[in-house]
Amino acid sequence: MSAPPDDCLARNEWICGDYLSSRSEILADAVVQHLRLTGASLALGVAVAVPLALLARRRRWAAAPVLGVTTVLYTIPALAMFSLLLPVYGLSASLVVAGLVLYSLTLLVRNLLAGLDAVPDDIRRAARGLGYGPTRLLLAVELPLALPAAMAGLRIAAVSTVSLVTIGAIVGHGGLGNLIYSGMNTYFKAQVLTASVLCVLLAVAADLLLLGAQRLLTPWTRGQDR
Amino acid sequence: MTTLAAAWAWLTTAAHWSGEDGIGHRLTEHLLLTGAGLALSCLIALPVALALGHLGRGGALAVNLANAGRAVPTFAVLVLLLLGPLGPYDPWPTVVALVLFAVPPLLTNAYVGVRGVDADVVRAARGMGMTGRQVLARVELPLALPLLLTGVRVAAVQLVATATVAALAGGGGLGRIITAGFNLASTPQVLAGAVLVAGLALLVEGLFEAVRALVPAAPRTRDRP
Asked: Which of A118, B104, B132, B203 has its CA 20 to 30 A from that of A176?
């Protein structure tokens, strides 16, 4: 009989290099799942938010209900949101994505509307004077000018989504949240700390990535902000 | 509609209100958790924000703290605290996690409120011979109060919703009704739990509105653009 190994895993230390090397596959899988859930939620969120915001702008009667409903959605606790969607989606990744899409809507719709509202009337009139129709005005003038505000909303939504994915652990689809959840139940300190740190790093990376994308997409704003 | 009716039936069943797992006990736990979290985070965030705002220092830190706070999952913080030295002292991991969640936005809002006070007014107060402390207490604080209260209100409402996460880690509060319903695959019970949390959040919001109505309204009209 050999004595149990006396490494940081056996001593259950917070910071443990052996954990990283021996569970790198599990960690990579969790990160990939986390990224997939975040990416799918944000893509769908944008796909739903843009038409909603445009509808709220075109038809004034739609503005109050759209803003009201998306704001109410935001106050539902994440735990309740995922539980309430359970009868619709079952224990699946789509459940987590659906919940996160609903959360991101508030931020995305609000910021897009704010951005569109901030387009100066002079510019709109000038474009009309140049013969722009409503569609071309929207696509070539209003949307690009609203982009910085919309991207600010997307960045906040991305950071919140990365952190909310962890709650998906309740249905077994929480990316790094799964590792935190199982680490809690087995009192596995290294796993909980590693997954938490990775989660924060993912959020920061997503934020920086979107900031970079915004810089690339709106070259005319460079040099303006400070 | 049947789910709504079933949730209503669940809520109005007297047996669900009493006992360890009853609504009454969970509601008390929830109020204690959010109350303690809010009080402690105000005690920490507001003096720091007032001091920073008064001195005009650490602005970048104060403004970006709220964004940085969003990146840290409350659930992860809760589990980290649970496995840490605080773990055995039951409600404290939850309370500390809630404090860490609420401090960043509180600090940012309060700082922005104090910095938003008209610089001319502050200069006038200085010119009248007020000391720094007097400027803070008699000019900056009263003028920043509406924004400050808004920040506290938003934090309180978010704390009510966030405290449900404690249930994932075996803590108390209304989240337990939701997780219990989840484990029983009982949608009416989950919905009832969600309705209770949302109702409590609305109640807290209403309470703050009432308090704001009582506060002298002098500076409020000037905030409007």
From this structure: B104
The ipTM, to two decimals, is: 0.85
Residue type, B143: L
Residues of chain B that touch chain A, judged by Cβ-Cβ distance less than 8 Å: 3, 67, 70-77, 79-80, 82-83, 157, 161-162, 164-165, 167-169, 175, 178-179, 181-182, 185, 187, 190-191, 193-194, 197-198, 201
Q: Among B76, B175, B190, select the one facing A166 at the smallest CB separation.
A: B76
Q: Do B179 and A79 touch (CB under 8 A)?
A: yes
- Domains in chain A with CATH codes: 17-217 (1.10.3720.10)
pLDDT (tens, 9 = 90+) of chain B, 225 residues, equals 688 888 888 888 888 888 888 899 999 999 999 999 999 999 999 999 999 999 888 888 887 888 888 899 999 999 999 998 887 888 899 999 999 999 998 999 899 889 988 889 999 999 999 998 999 999 999 999 888 888 899 899 889 989 999 998 888 899 999 999 888 888 889 889 988 998 898 899 889 888 878 866 555 444 444
CA A178 to chain centre: 18
| CATH number of the domain enclosing B81 | 1.10.3720.10
Decide if B109 is inside a domain. Answer: yes
Size of interface A-B (CB pairs under 8 A): 115
Q: What SS3 state is found at A59?
A: coil
